[in-house]
Design a protein that fits this description.
CATH superfamily of the largest domain: Imidazole glycerol phosphate dehydratase, domain 1
CATH class of the largest domain: Alpha Beta
Mean pLDDT: 90
Shape: elongated
CATH architecture of the largest domain: 2-Layer Sandwich
Number of domains: 2
Low-confidence stretches: 289-295
Distance between the termini: 24 Å
Largest sheet: 5 strands, mixed
Strand content: 25-35%
CATH topology of the largest domain: Ribosomal Protein S5, domain 2
Radius of gyration: 23 Å
């Protein structure tokens, strides 16, 4: 990626300094094969020496052939796309380099049928912030587990035909959630792909996921109660089935215990931790697709 960097984004508090974290961030971008363009003549000898010590240099390229531009605004570094829209921001180059190397993976989805009206917005690289309203309190609580323990920012609203029953709301939200996660993952390059288990008090849920592109669910677990709060326990397996088919993943869940609330919650928390692991990225695998077939659908 070609990145044009304004002089103001490099200069620190005075002519002898660079912006906080610049040496680390710029070196990191270069090591991950990003091409950097800046104007050396605008920098002091001391600043150039600091860059030179880390072998950071401006690339020889057309300054107009850029993919991203880094500018400053009121003490904040901002990454702009070719249309001039802000896509990332940070106070220092360490954080900014992470955001450039690993852009936030977001998705927004709307789905309206005669049975439900759903909106979902999510960020796989979030902190677990969430706002969830499906009209079913226990279901909202379970979906919150996916956000909190998966570190996924998740907003879900659903207006469903609860006057009939809970089935359409639970099923359709699962469908949309699976589609949204799959959309945010994109080509799946650089992800861990697999994730693995979770105890909750006397209950134990073993959860394993593979973003294989081959949807399949294996669910082992039984419930004694018909309802937990306003949630039919028979819909637990159906939620994971609907999610899996639209997530295009292989999912295995096995749960045992005495308390049905704990068992269901352990399944959702286990899924969350699996997602957190499986969608995570690091520099070692940044440009690697985890498949010997070179394809993950």
């Amino acid at each position: 990626m070609n990145i044009r960097i304004s002089t103001a984004s490099l200069i620190g508090e005075n002519d002898d300094m660079l912006w906080s974290g610049a040496l680390y961030g710029l070196k990191r971008l270069q090591e991950m094969d990003h091409q950097l363009f800046f104007i050396p003549d605008d920098l002091s000898k001391q600043q150039l020496a600091l860059l030179g010590n880390e072998e950071i240099s401006a690339s020889d390229m057309d300054p107009n052939a850029v993919d991203l531009q880094v500018i400053t605004d009121n003490g904040i570094l901002k990454v702009m796309d070719t249309n001039g829209a802000e896509i990332e921001s940070a106070k220092n180059w360490i954080i900014l380099s992470t955001k450039i190397c690993f852009p936030s993976r977001k998705a927004f989805l709307q789905r309206t049928t005669s049975e439900t009206d759903i909106e979902i917005a999510l960020n796989l690289d979030g902190t677990g912030e969430n706002s969830i309203d499906t009209g079913l309190d226990f279901y909202d609580h379970m979906l919150e587990q996916i956000a909190k323990h998966g570190l996924i920012d998740l907003n879900i609203s659903c207006d469903g035909d609860l006057n009939i029953d809970e089935h359409h709301t639970i099923e359709d939200v699962a469908i949309c959630l699976g589609q949204a996660i799959n959309q945010a993952l994109g080509d799946k390059v650089g992800i861990q792909r697999y994730g693995f288990t979770l105890p909750m008090d006397e209950s134990l849920a073993e959860v394993a996921i593979d973003f294989s592109g081959r949807p399949f669910l294996k669910f082992n677990g039984e419930f004694q109660r018909n309802m937990v709060g306003d949630f039919p326990t028979e819909m637990t397996q159906h939620f994971f089935y609907s999610l899996t088919m639209n997530l295009k993943a292989t999912l295995h869940i096995s749960v045992q215990g005495d308390n049905d609330h704990h068992k269901i919650e352990a399944c959702f928390k286990g899924l969350a931790r699996c997602l957190r692991t499986a969608v995570s990225r690091n520099e070692r695998i940044a440009n690697i697709l985890p498949s010997t077939k070179d394809l993950l659908e």
